[in-house]
Design goal:
Number of strands: 2
Strand order of the largest sheet: 1-2
Helix content: 55-70%
Distance between the termini: 30 Å
Number of domains: 1
């Protein structure tokens, strides 16, 4: 992979990291020394069942955003370490097309398929 491609993918990952962080902030997820905490919800809901459902939905979304943020940050770390674009399972290069589609990819398609079938 050439340096221009790596630079372009780094920019995309940094943009995505910023967007995910903003979304977490907008949802009320707080940052502290240990990372992002669960969001605070208004306990003033009239319907306790609705409040519980809203909390469950919000926590699911926050967990998904946290996972995305972790994947993006790990991809950026791999760029710094010089291991970006190398499959974590088999050690072979991940095709540029896959990284263009999913810049935070950790596995080549062969290993992803094998992992997904288990």
């Amino acid at each position: 992979m050439d340096q221009q491609t790596v630079d372009r993918l780094r920019e995309r990952l940094e943009t995505e990291r910023g967007e995910v962080r903003r979304q977490l902030d907008d949802l009320g997820a707080r940052r502290d020394a240990e990372g992002i905490e669960d969001p605070e919800l208004d306990e003033g809901f009239a319907d306790a069942g609705q409040a519980a459902a809203e909390r469950a939905n919000l926590l699911t979304l926050v967990r998904s955003l946290r996972d995305t943020l972790r994947d993006v940050e790990q991809a950026l770390d791999r760029m710094v370490a010089g291991t970006y674009g190398i499959c974590e399972r088999c050690g072979q290069p991940i095709p540029d097309e896959r990284l263009e589609a999913l810049p935070a990819a950790r596995l080549c398609m062969t290993c992803k398929r094998q992992r997904g079938s288990r």
